């Protein structure tokens, strides 16, 4: 036990003495939360929109007013012909153009359906996606009001249909995603690199020749990163709450417990990587390619998996962060409890056990 | 096991697929002896040393180290041996003192013994005023002497040195060997691999391995007499050439 304690203390020395490790451990999480938070909140604040109003009636004016009132848009130009759209985009005056067809109000009242086009500058696909979603939402909202007031059927059907974040606030959605990325990064990458380092420097042999048991080496390696990852989870949640008002509507205890489960999962993945990687570079490379990219791309963190081709969507079901993001999002935003989240929790638990068993098997095989 | 043999090896064999890394090795090492285990790179030295340390299982043979067999008593073996490898084994980002305490700790020395050992060791190596220096800031020769002293901090019966003096000049090697002699004098058996032939001269007995087989085993003087040459280097060359022809 004393030997084990010494081992853990040594691990902390490694972490605290290497400023790069410290930077990754504590700098990246904070930077990511702040960056993602502000990027997401500013990109839908007063985005430039140009209007080509071929009707100029009360309805089109009202829709424009509602867009302005939302605070997401700023009308930067009034166009007079469709030929101007391209130059507006080129000059960067607007990122979106709204085209109202002729006789907009009249058609609406006659029940013939009005022509509304949303043209977005898709060179920045994400921004375009968001802008279109928000515009669509505002138009539909207006439509709904009209239905209630005037008993006319829903007629303005904007032509673009894309995924839509009902909260109208990106950062809410991003905090759980960032947590999964950070926990993955720190837990899996840092452990795999630190074990690979022992191997690379030849220290692993000395440890294996010593009376320390392999299991003590494994746990001694994992424990410091478990603690630090947990500290990080707590700080990301607090940062989201303090800076961006992201609430934790559900049980904070449950959220932290699920985070611990996810950390354990990431740690066992790190262990698995380290058992196949002979050097720090290889470990870093595998973690980046094998964990970071899928975490960001396939977990539903940024791109909704429902819009992916079927085969990619199927792959996304094998991505552990997907489940953690669902769990964290539901606890934080919807405030639901384990009663609704048990399937995801069970999946995470199963994956954790699986990777833990495979990783320690692999680790042992390497010894003999 | 006869009382004075601390390592006994009969027909040690290690096969990787079709390849015999160790082909029926037979030798024994006496207690307190400095045993040189020579061979060119790839001759199978490291494979054998890993088996003797319990890091790797042999394919066959009867092998005992400090009275324990390497098949199922590796835990006991580990408590009785020290090990220093050709790759560097101290932690660069820990200080001299922290390294000593860490390794002492994993061998289960109690606090009192560890404190005593640490100060003795610092004094012996003349490192007392450098005890709070990070390892990366002290010269290679000192690092190797420190690594050796740490490898025997728990007073093992045998210490395995796998090319311990790689990359240093003959004078520094000589200093290193002073420590080895001192350890041997205090009763620790030294099992050392090297490809520096000047080091071979310092051993009590040497074995020379070529292609997984031991082709000569005797004291350096006897070997030189047998092959009628003046240095171990020539013995080695002669044996290697003989093998080729």
Given as residue ranges, the uncertain stretches of chain B (5+ residues, pLDDT < 50) are none
The CATH fourth-level homologous superfamily of chain B: P-loop containing nucleotide triphosphate hydrolases
Query: How much of the polypeptide of chain A forms β-strand, as a percent range?
Result: 5-15%
CATH architecture of chain B: 3-Layer(aba) Sandwich
Protein structure class of chain B: alpha/beta
First-last Cα distance of chain A: 24 Å
As for the number of domains of chain B, it is: 1
What does this structure look like?
Chain A is 70% helix and 7% strand. By secondary structure, chain A is an alpha/beta fold. Chain A folds into 2 domains: 237 residues, no CATH class; 106 residues, abc type-2 transporter like fold (3-Layer(aba) Sandwich). Chain A has a 4-stranded mixed β-sheet, sandwiched between helices. Chain A is elongated and about 85 Å long. Chain B has a single domain, classed as Rossmann fold (3-Layer(aba) Sandwich), CATH 3.40.50. The longest helix of chain B has 16 residues. Chain B is globular. The interface between A and B is medium-sized, with 24 and 29 residues.
